[in-house]
Amino acid sequence: MISFDLSEHKIHHIHLIGIGGISMSAIAEVLLNHGYRVSGSDIKQSNIVDKLKRHGAEIFIGHRAENIQNPDLVVYSAAIKSINPERVRAEELNIPQVDRAEMLGQIMKKYEKAIAVAGSHGKTTTTSLVSLLLEYADLDPTILVGGELDDIGGNIKIGKSQHFITEACEYVESFLKLFPFIGIILNIDEDHLDYYRDLDHIKEAFRSFVKLIPQEGFLVACNDDSNVREVYGVGNCNVITYGINIPSDFMAKDIIFDREGHPMFKVTYRGEDFGDFHLSIPGVHNVYNALASIATSHILGIDTGKIAENLKRYHGIHRRFDILGDVKGAKIVDDYAHHPVEIKATLEAAKQYPHKKIWAIFQPHTYSRTKALLKEFADAFGSADYIIITDIYAAREPEDCEVSSKKLVSLMDPKLGARYMEDFEEIVDYVYENIQPGDLVLTMGAGDVYKIGEMLLNKFQ
């Protein structure tokens, strides 16, 4: 592990392996803004790669040893293993190497008001909400978000203030390399069990995250989540809680939904009226995300009226209940939900949205998650009228013959009528032939299941 100061250092040229990824590309853009020479490599051309090239990065397509042209530091993403030819070459040349999370932590140290959004679910949405509340309040934050946010024209915005906002990913304890002034914990669930032993191991990691926050800093914590309640007392920082059911500092009351399924609610702060709020994104789960954002904005001194006004302006991020269009009078929606808790929350949000029947098309993500949470997945689809499960998206993992989408379907209640369908074209044809005007077709998963929605729209056109 190396440590350096971004203002006083001897490192001038930084090479990023996997530079085209959402998080790595954001880091590259921040480094370019700070005056570094940035090079990198990725396996394919993309709009993100083209954007970085326009900003001055030198990018190679494909991973090769000769791409390492004597940089002072090499940064690699979680997907890049030690056998990667560029990492091997850097090792041969004794060039220091750090992972993405460590670099992100070093960048955070430059900002006095660094905000890290942690939790098993909702990180991208909450990071986006906080980011835009600060942006619209003219605090000019630097923003790194794990998705495409139209309001900032992508996944990153470079600001000139001391405010910095990013997601804090718990996978392989990456978030323990960060330096937050404000930490947010949205929820804690069993996930990433290819790394963590069990839920207790996950909670221990979150306890360590809490301890990173300095005494003068703040932890914003969801009081309704019993696992969060177990961890937030271990630090020495200020703690601000929020919730709907358990008495908390910030509480949402009298939640109702408009005709589009968007929640409206009152907020109290330590028992006193804090104002009325109306979201433009669906679901009770987004009331929780909004409460975390409201609490964080209040800590930073943003006017309550501005918070309410600008929360209403937020219409979501790509792949979070993302309305793609209409086919035969049915609405096509895509969502990143890839955990049983997220699936339930997304389907509950869909129930509040105008619809006749709900179609759930799900692509499990990773063999390890599907295997570890197989029963929970089987029980997660009760709010859907039609269920289609396609093959597991392997991502970083080799095939595991002990688990499959067919096995998942076999464990579901037969009354649900879930079916396994392997081929995307077959799914598109089946849905196209059977949907009715007023139906809601929802694709869910962290892989490439979104292509089904795109294919449906193209078929209609």
From TrEMBL:
Cell wall formation. It catalyses: UDP-N-acetyl-alpha-D-muramate + L-alanine + ATP = UDP-N-acetyl-alpha-D-muramoyl-L-alanine + ADP + phosphate + H(+). This is UDP-N-acetylmuramate--L-alanine ligase. The lineage of its organism: Bacteria, Bacillati, Bacillota, Clostridia, Peptostreptococcales. ATP binds at G119, S120, H121, G122, K123, T124, T125. Coiled coil: none annotated. Keywords: ATP-binding, Cell cycle, Cell division, Cell shape, Cell wall biogenesis/degradation, Cytoplasm, Ligase, Nucleotide-binding, Peptidoglycan synthesis. Pathway: Cell wall biogenesis; peptidoglycan biosynthesis. Residues 319-447 form the Mur ligase C-terminal domain. It comes from the Bacteria.
